[in-house]
Amino acid sequence: MEGRLTEISLKEALRYLGVRDAPDPQLAAAMEKCSALLRSRARPRITWRQFSLGEDLRLEGTSFFLPGQDIRRHLSCCLRVILLAATLGMETELLLRQTQSRSMADAVLLDALASAAVENVTDNLCRDLAAEFAPLHLTPRYSPGYGDFPLEAQREVCELLNVHRLLGVSLTAGGLMIPQKTVTALAGLTGDPPEKSPRPRCEACPLAGGCSYRKEDRTCESC
């Protein structure tokens, strides 16, 4: 299973930029140019591990207990869980830094496009995992920082996935992942069809108050 970047959604990038209307021709052209540059430099990488769930949501074979009531609801029908990570690689991180020193306008566009790109890589990984484990069903992915699943859990997830060695991803003392365009998450494996799988509530999310998805009467992948 390899990291795959199949699409950079301009619509999604515009959402990150806070642009709700169709872009004008100048903005659209600039985004297409930055998108092509990003595609040429991105080197998507992925990794994942499967664990059985023990008592109190402990990952079997580890000392890591999944904290929070939201994650308990999310995995209530699951006996196994998959930890996963996806990144665009240091090549993209260096491109973002180089662009910032040359043109902040391009850097802002590139950052939004890179966010959309890493989401695509992560979505593709989840689709591949769903196919790998069929007929079991994969729950929606859930990342540290969603609901009451603390961001501090990121460090344990990164260690269990060995992202530094396998993906070249490091974690700062403040919990920031480098390269920044990196996603970690977990997803449960259940015999229930997706529509019956428990999903976290928007009300529990710390970002709910200013969520751009909710303003558009939509939900993110965690809902």
Describe the structure.
The strands form two sheets. A four-stranded antiparallel β-sheet has the order 1-2-6-3, with helices on both faces. Strands 4-5 form a two-stranded antiparallel ribbon. Helix 4 runs antiparallel to helix 5. A hairpin with a 5-residue loop joins strand 4 and strand 5. The protein is α+β, with helices and mostly antiparallel strands. It is globular. It contains eight helices and six strands; from the N terminus they run ααβαβααβααβββα.
Question: Which characteristics define this entry?
Answer:
single chain, 223 residues, alpha+beta, 4-stranded antiparallel beta sheet, two-stranded antiparallel sheet, 6 strands, globular
Summarize this entry quickly.
The protein is of the alpha+beta class and 223 residues long.
Q: List the uncertain runs.
A: 196-201
Number of helices: 8
Class from helix and strand fractions: alpha+beta
Strand order of the largest sheet: 1-2-6-3
- The helix-strand sequence is HHEHEHHEHHEEEH
Rg computed from alpha carbons, rounded to a whole number of angstroms:
18 Å
Structural shape: globular
Strand content: 5-15%
Distance between the termini: 26 Å
Estimated helix fraction = 40-55%
How is the main sheet built?
A: 4 strands, antiparallel
User: How many strands appear in the DSSP assignment?
Assistant: 6
Q: Kindly state the mean pLDDT as a whole number? A: 88
